Amino acid sequence: METKKAICMWCHSHCPVSVTVDDGKLVHVEAFKGHPHFAVFDRAVTACPRARGAGEWFHHPDRLTHPLKRVGDRGSGKWETISWEQALDEIADKVRQLRERYGPETLASSSGTYRTHDEYRSRFLNLFGTPNHVGQGQICFGVSNLVSAALVGWTIAFTKIHPETKCVMLCGANPPGGARILWFPILDAQKRGAKLIVVDPRRTEAAERADIWLQLRPGTDTALYMGMINIIIKEGLYDREFVDKWCHGFEKLAERAEEYPLEEVSEITWVPKEKILEAARTFGTSRPAAVFNAMGVEHLSNSIQALHARFILPAITGNIDVKGGALIRPPHPSFISGFDVELNDALPLEQKNKAIGAERFRFQTHTGYDLVMENVIRVWGKAFSKCHTAFAHAPGVYRAMLTGQPHPVRAMITLSSNPMVTQANSKLVYKALKSLDLYVVMDFWLTPSADLADYVLPAASWLERPTVNTSNDIASYVDAGDAIFPPRVDGKYERRTDFDFWRGLGIRLGQEQHWPWQSLEESYDYRLAPLGYTLKQFIEQKGGYDSVRAEYRQYERVGFGTPTGKIELYSTIFDKLGYDPLPRYKEPAESHLSTPEVAKDYPFILITGGRFWPLYHSEHRQIDGWRRQHPDPITQINPKTASELGIEDGDWVWLETPRGRMRQRCRHFEGIDPRVVHAEHGWWFPELPGEEPWLHGAWESNCNVLTDDNPDHCNEISGGWPLRAGLCKVYKAKTW
Length: 736
Prior knowledge:
The chain is an alpha/beta fold. It contains 30 helices and 27 strands. Helix 4 (84-102) packs across helix 23 (498-508), helix 6 crosses helix 16 and helix 20 (394-403) packs across helix 22 (426-435). The protein starts with a strand and ends with a strand.
């Protein structure tokens, strides 16, 4: 029996765990006792059903074992098993031919939610010459980090709750469902008397525990936060000394905030006036206070503006870089970061400018990223990684596959993502993927996206690869774990790490001098060398963890990493890029007010994307022990609405939008407004056939059949697509 430390990558908590193996079988997972924050991780891991079922996941018979090559029509489900060398040789040859015909920008790549070592993907793509990487960072994690860095000079998007914290505000976030390492400290803070404010259209677990629950109309977050800002300024609840010395553009902000009087904000958001007042006064007078946001904000068409206002709230109340508030944790100074590995300068400016959508959605492409990081580097000496922060525009890339405009995209490599289920407007994505000359997928399973591929490659999981976690370079720590199992076992399976794939492909395409390391572990040895350790030494001698000591009010010493050296309430970067430098609410492109003619046929507001245990995004539906806990896709409908529609609790219902329809099982839920419905995301059915028309059930209950990716409806600054606040209709599915 052997126990080793690893970093679990099944969600964004990245818990350090001890994994015990007996005679080749995974038998136990628990929090790593040698971690300095063991107490927090122990509660999260002990409560985690995924940790308890890790053995079933790892030893599942349906995991991919060897590379597959399509031998029938695309989507026919006909495959032959080939070697890794043959797969890489053939993929490289096809990519080379396409590059010669169309240019390197013809290759696109799709990524997921930062749970692998994507800096090596960036390295390959930059050396190859393509800027057309698309990922979830425009609607998850990356967008918050970049907005925060533009305004504050580093990210304060993900904060820590301290004993001193007097108030916590959750914006579109439900930590019990997705971030228990944050939730348990919040519960502890409440026991000490801290107030909890929750902004959410649904009565989530967090909302049930809230002192103040602001049940807003989906998509109106910006108006709500600006209304709170207006109250805080009008009533003198802001930190005048901090604002005068360390905030840029306060007077202009105050003028803009006057456009959001209480009565009008209440009418826009559906939140009662007295609740908005109470929340603003509580937040403005309870210091230190911390704010945490998640995808409920990032999924909006008005996302950048909402995030801008959300970051203004802790800024004007003096809750920046104080113990118990929003901490600035600069990058680890010694570890060679993901940013350093990416080789972003290897991609010429001419090629960067070919990123699809870069001219229109300038902030979250190289233009905005470089503007932000120029000042970040000036203060902190390092930037954070680009791989989950700046992108080509995904809706534009899929359209380019079909139209050839602004240039042909004829090949895509999908690694750690499942765009058939997780990208908005699944019908368009399907047509786009089917049209490609080359589609390669690397995954753990045959997914609906893999069903459409030319080559499917078996990926090593976090249990089969070493990991060094820095949360995309935004953390001031380095947390490392070992591989528990080998990725290759003769006669059984031959999986490879993402590093192995990108290095193998890169060497075949002329990048050999840029890939000096033979393995992922060897590359980590190189990156840890400035600390004086190899990876194994770092784990054995330091418990795999090193951190920069926390400091507070660092701005008094170095200022803020922004163009003005202050927190930019009025963003000079947004201004320079040609966007509104202050937050402004904009009605969703599809709503009762903006499209009343659509609302006649589609009377309900649709929100998607709420987390649910034990599944995660589009993962884990083939794991029997977890699926039994959540067997069916669920749509939450208020009982009053359901009664009017003749829908009983447990009935299957159709949800339909102007883009398509799919069905889920109804759950009566009093914690949602009668005018709103919530549909779960990520659903497909591994138990169904993979060949067309089935595609493992990609069309059955996939809410992205409903969602909108029209570039004209995306956020005008970042290009983020609206996954919440569209319109739909609901009706009972006929059953016997």
